[in-house]
Amino acid sequence: MRKFLLTTALVLPLSGMAFAQDADTAAEDTMEDAAQATENAAESAADAAGDAADAAGDAASDAADATTDAAGDAADAAGDAAADAGDAAEDAGDAAADAADAETETMDADATMEADSDMAAETEMEGDAAMEADPAMEGDAAADPGASAESMDAEAAAEDAEAAAMEAEMANSDKIAREQSGNELRVDWITGASVTSPDGDSIGDVNDIIVDSESGSMIAAIVGVGGFLGIGEKQIALPWDQLTINYDAEEITSELTQEEADAAPEYVFRERESAPAPAGATDGMATDPAADPAMAPADPAAAPADPAAADPAAEPAAPAN
């Protein structure tokens, strides 16, 4: 019994030590497992963050590529639309030119037909007059109508050739102007245009133009100053050589300031006069007795020989018995 107790006393401490050693080993294993789990979790989180960053980069790259493609497509569409608009404008210009050419050809054809009709009528009248003057010609024409038709065709062809020659001559003639030059302006462009001062202030609009009847040169532009909607507006004349006209009269500048224009006197127009009668016509009217009945000579044959017969009331009455 004593041995058993001694043995038990010896075994129990040794068992406690072994159990404590096993507990320490389990704790170390648990700590190692926890550390390994933490490390694995960190690696997983890092991998997930890397994957997310890669996905975000890919999405941004795809979005940039899509934006670039969309901008390129929009630019191509705008270019195509502009090209189509240019082609449409060119086609419209060609159509307008063709219409103008067709109208010109129609007018030329109408003029030619009218001239041919007039020439045919004149030729017919001349032929009738010649036949009336020479009855033998009428008999010849009736005997040979083909010869008369050939003669009329020949005359018509000659007149057509003469008309074509005249058109060719007039096409190169200095008597007409055929096309407006780049430095030439239309009066319609100038009237209504706004005139500004050197400072850019509006003076008024051009209402009329004064032209020298002898030289044909421009003298002045009539500009309406002040007023409201044409009411109370005064007309002043700006010398033509003091105006600067740019861009086909889209901009007209004067040396006059707005204050000077407001203080300028109103331009005085003259009344339009009728042309004087030719000197020869005036002299003829003065010397022609037929123009003035009072100056016509008396007709002796129409005057009564006996003045008393001209007025029965003037004859004295016979005395009564």
From TrEMBL:
Record protein name field: PRC-barrel domain-containing protein
Residue intervals of the PRC-barrel domain: 186-245
Biased composition (Low complexity): 33-61, 279-321
Keywords from the UniProt entry: Signal
Species assigned in the record: Paracoccus isoporae
Highest taxon above the source species: Bacteria
Pfam family, one: PRC
Signal peptide: 1-20
SUPFAM superfamilies: PRC-barrel domain
Region (Disordered): 25-61, 81-110, 137-170, 271-321
Membrane-spanning ranges: none
Gene3D superfamilies cross-referenced by the UniProt entry: PRC-barrel domain
Composition skew (Acidic residues), residue ranges: 100-110, 152-162
